[in-house]
Prior knowledge:
The chain is of the alpha+beta class. The strands form 7 sheets. Strands 9, 14, 15, 16, 19, 20, 21, 22, 23 and 24 form a 10-stranded mixed sheet that branches. Strand 3 (125-127) and strand 4 (130-132) form a beta hairpin. Helix 2 runs antiparallel to helix 5 and helix 13 runs antiparallel to helix 14 (411-422).
Amino acid sequence: MGATNASAETEARSILERAAESSFPPLHAVHSLLSVGFSCYFSTVPPIHLEKDDEHCVVLQVCVRCIMRLFGANSSSCSCSSLTASVLHSFLEEHDDSIKGGSCQCLSMNDAYCSVCLGVLLPAFHQGEGFENPIGASHIDNISSMISQAVQREGYQIDEFSLEISLPPVIVANERAVRLYMKQKYVNENWFKDKIFPQQTMSVKETLRILIAPSLEKQMNAKHGNGNSSFRIRLTYTHDDASQKLHSLLPNDNGRKRKTDSRNGSDTSNEAHKRNSADGNNKQTSESDSFIYKTLEGIQDQEFCNLIQLPPEKVSKPCHLVVSCARSPIYIGGRYLKLSRNVSQSCWIIDDERMGEASVEEIIGENVRAICRCDSLKFHAAGREDIDVRMLGSGRPFLVEVLNVRSMPSEIEVQQIEERINNSEKKYVRVRNLNMVGNEIWTMMREGEAEKQIALLNTKASITLYLQKQYAALIWTSRELMDNDLHSISVTKDMEIEQKTPIRVLHRRSPLERKRIIHWMEIEKVAGSSNYYLLHLCTQAGTYIKEFVHGDLGRTHPSIGAILGCRAEILRLDVTDVKMDFLQ
């Protein structure tokens, strides 16, 4: 252990020696960042005029990683875990005569955190009721362990991850304040013109990501995917006290009204209420942060100095950290057959009463959920059939959007889902060709659109695809049809009809008029009857078939009844084919 520590300190000192030769200013200026005394809180008194011995002395602490960042050190230097404040202070004592043998407060401020990053790069944080503030490598491992445990607690199975980091805007303001403070203090010194802070330096986010990613990879036995992974770990840092103080100092934009909590419901303590409250607070925090960032971008340096304290005051507590994990949605697609006339496509409840025995969405969804272990599901289908209409033939294309899965299903597990559905005791629904598919399929399946423009993958061309659907309908006519009636229907090709929104769905659909195409029809008499016929037809997707048969009091024209010149009613309807070139 002693040899390891000695090696780590040697590495840190080597980094400092290279920095002193290349990017560092005179070492007394570096020490000024590590511990700066000045006499007044107010930015109206330029720090360059302040004396260290004044009675209202305040100490600024900037952590060693922020010092390295501010002076343009590279990523390996900023993220070196063995580079601590004590190592830097020891290095300064050895090489800077101005602090040898003197009293220095930069290592005695145990109750303070970095005035720039607010302890994020220690990395220190406050989570729940306890404080975590180990120093150096052990603390990096601790925060990595905490994140890893959060992932394991949720039961995620991963081989790659990306890190998303959200920081309070006060960090940006504090970094700017430190830069301006150093400029005011050293602008007249010759070295400052040559060693001025680089404009492009590593951000706190980038430094933290580089700092903890290797430890996380080791803890979770997974690769850090640099933002391209479907599994995301989000670290959300907040510092309410510092953010609220900064917000109060900034000018409000015209017409901006601060949002207040307007809930006036009962004082409940259920989990849904807690989640809603948390979501509301997060939204307000996000809006406040956006306002601060926008305002800071529009403030010139002179105005900034008049508004914000230079340098920023010491911070007595670190940021609050919340760790959350999420996986991008996955899609399982195929085709379903609905064999019952008492099963809806989605769960259908009217006045707290369930319509039908079950739904396609629930039957498929509960089997997907059992394998994938997810937060929720969204069911998407290429159109829908009424509850009393069967879906036969090759089936209707569908997708299940699975949100935040804990376990990515294997090919075998997807087949198990299909088998569980098809072998269920109640023969309501069957599925076929179940597979994991890409999200581009969803763009080809927007429900209710008869006309879809689909971008061809890997090309700049596009096509307009008119989806076709085939039906078989048992109909009744008020008179017996003659051979010429049957012939007139059977020779119909690509007939255009006009349909107003059907009366039966006007309560939930906009009152529109649509043009649709009847591609072809065939009709045959039901044996042993005089007024019953089996009608087969192929139509443009989005055609209301029931209304096309009976005319819907003239709202669909022409209709079968109008063509035959008699009353026509539909008794049974089946969808026999949905013609799409995907999810076959």
